[in-house]
Amino acid sequence: MHYFYCLSLCLAIVMSASGCVVETRVGDGSCGGCAADCDHDETNGCETDLSTVENCGACRHACSAREICLAGTTCWNPDDALIGAWTFEEASGSAVSDVSLGALDGNVCSFQTDTAMCTDDGNGPIRGSGHNGRGLIFDGVDDGVFVPFSSTLHPTFISMEAWINWSGNLADWQQRVIEHTRAASSSTVSNYSMTITPEGGVQVEMRLHDVEGDGAVEKFETRIVLNAFEWTHLIVTYDGQRIVVYKDGTKVDDHAVLGQLLYPETTSSGLGIGNQTNRNRPFYGTLDDVRIYNRALTAIEVAARYNFTR
Ligand SMILES: [Ca+2]
Ligand SMILES: [Ca+2]
Ligand SMILES: [Ca+2]
After folding, report:
1. Ligand 1 center from residue 11 Cα (angstroms)
2. Which residue from 21, 31, 101, 217 puts its CA 20 to 30 A from 92's CA?
3. CATH top-level class for 82-309?
4. What is the whole-number distance in angstroms between the Cα of residue 72 and the centre of ligand 1?
5. How far apart are CA 52 and CA 48, in angstroms?
6. Ligand nearest, relative to CA of residue 289
């Protein structure tokens, strides 16, 4: 057994951006759980933070370009389970590119009430400053992004993610951040959605094939209330047992319900971002980094996404 001597320099890494805390016990020769003496030079102490992508869990164990060092132990590619990811970095034009491998490209457009139409009429959301680079600014009247139907939009379990800067209540709309809708109808209900209420509350809807098999929609009003004109990071997950809501990387609410997502129709409308595809419910504010995954992210993964994008 070889011990590296941990001297006063260990204290310089007490708290890094990734949260490494060096449990220095001066005198017993150990480096603690998240630092190491990678240069094998005892005179400069334990100089390496092992929670970084360059040294993830071990000296010189480097993660690849798309990976995050998860909990200081494991390289994780947050794109592995992606259905789609929209960062809104386009400077102009109507295209809204899916930057994941899913190729679910959409376009900015104007939605209309009680029809499946979304018209690319030049009066959709505009490009502006987002949380990371550019974002899309939605007018709260009819703006949205439409992503055409794909069978990959029908996961059994899910995570929905977005950076949200809400501009407040405009017309008592239920403002949709993400919406996947069953059918065009005034009584439309969501297959899955993330909604901001007029009061700034966050509401989640999921159509679940539950234990009774009745396909009832779970409508879950979370305890979160958004402040207008502030960036908030939200992730909602469902793993077949619980709907869990995370705000700024931390779990804030959950709702126990057994089941799986249900899609009664064989084909469907596409995905609405900042609106509902068949029934105008426009978001008012700026969105960025909208992502949908085909499984429930874990709490550690959610925290890593927040820290990576904040
Ligand atoms: Ca050293
Ligand atoms: Ca508009
Ligand atoms: Ca962006």
Report:
1. 13
2. 101
3. mainly beta
4. 19
5. 9
6. 3
In the chain, where the domains are located? 1-77, 82-309
Instruction: Mark the residues whose beta carbon lies below 5 A from ion ligand 3.
Output: 87-88, 130, 132-134, 288
Degrees, nearest 5: CA angle 245-99-194: 25
Q: Give the type of residue at 28.
A: D
Length of the chain in terms of residues written: 310
Q: How far is the CA of 286 from the centre of ligand 2 (A)?
A: 13
Cβ contacts of 280 within 8 Å, gap of 6 or more: 111, 112, 113, 142
Distance between start and end Cα atoms, the chain: 41
Tell how far the Cα of 18 is from the centroid of ligand 3, in angstroms.
Answer: 22
Residue with tokens 């899609």: 263
pLDDT in tens, the chain (310 residues): 233 333 333 343 444 444 565 544 444 557 777 888 888 888 877 888 888 899 999 999 999 988 989 888 889 998 889 999 999 999 999 999 999 988 999 999 998 877 667 889 999 999 999 999 999 999 999 999 999 999 999 999 999 999 999 999 999 989 999 999 765 555 567 889 999 999 999 999 998 887 666 667 788 889 899 999 999 999 999 999 999 999 999 999 999 998 999 887 766 678 999 998 878 899 999 999 999 999 999 999 999 999 999 9
Give the distance (Å) from ligand 1 centre to CA of residue 2.
14
